[in-house]
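I'd like us to work through together how a protein chain folds, taking it slowly. We need material for that, and I hope you will provide a protein of your own picking. Go ahead whenever you are ready, and we will take it from there:
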Amino acid sequence: KWIKEPELLSELAPYADDAAFREQFAKVKYENKARFSRWINRHQGLELNPDTMFDVQVKRLHEYKRQLLNALHILVLYNRICDDPNYTMAPRTFIFGAKAAPGYRRAKEIIHFINVLAAKIEQHPRASKMIKIAFLQNYNVSTAEMLMPASEVSEQLSTASKEASGTGNMKFMMNGAVTIGTLDGANVEIAELVGEENCYIFGMRSKEVEALYAAGTYRSLDIYETNAELRRALNMLFDGSLTPENPRMFEGLYRALVFSDNGGLADPYLVLQDFGSYQQAQARLGRDYQNTKAWTKKEIINVAKSGVFSSDRTILEYNDQIWHLPMLTKKK
């Protein structure tokens, strides 16, 4: 019945504590991961391992959506693996999908950076066993239909106060992906519905962001100077570590995050400001993922709480409060 009445998905919630149901739910999720892996191999030649965590950020490429925050965190993880032969993490496949507006040069630079980083990690014997980056070509609805049921982590990283709503986060939630995100747009409602123990909230809140802008005192350079791991990752954008054939290829990204140009605000979307909080949330997520029982329970609760986002429910609510059309009045 949930197809016509999505709010009935709430009846799944008690099954989060049922071991047999969790096992079947996890089996379906794995089968969806394997199906997507086969699909992307046919369409793009990428080989993904469904035994790894599928961590997904797919949406329009824009600086405020902060794909760059995700990529810099991956670069920090890569450096840890390179530096410490004893460092381990749950193997993770980071999946990106995005398109940039034709004239949006900075967005295209970010896409280029993510793909260069993917190639760099692929070449490292140890790092490639723990990290894989897949950038989906021509991301569209058909791809989403395959990807969302396979997703385990939903990256919703917009700078607080910038996202009007967002619907991708709702679709990921309905398919059992656990959200890591800021309290922005529909993430606010998701966190309220599932509880913060079943999602990973990080970063500044909207009022804090607005106050920071109003004060005009934000200096991303201070964060650059005090966070050694982040500073190293940023320096790699222009020191030849990633692109020895053109060492300064991503210097524009670096400068936009650290130095203000023409009197403007450096790092206007607060990537560096929120980096530490994001890093901590990712560390918690990585630890929790290794507890299969607890993680699957989080996924089930996300599905059970997702029915409220149905457009049917929204239309009926509009009718109850505004339109009062008899043909839409829900029978009690």
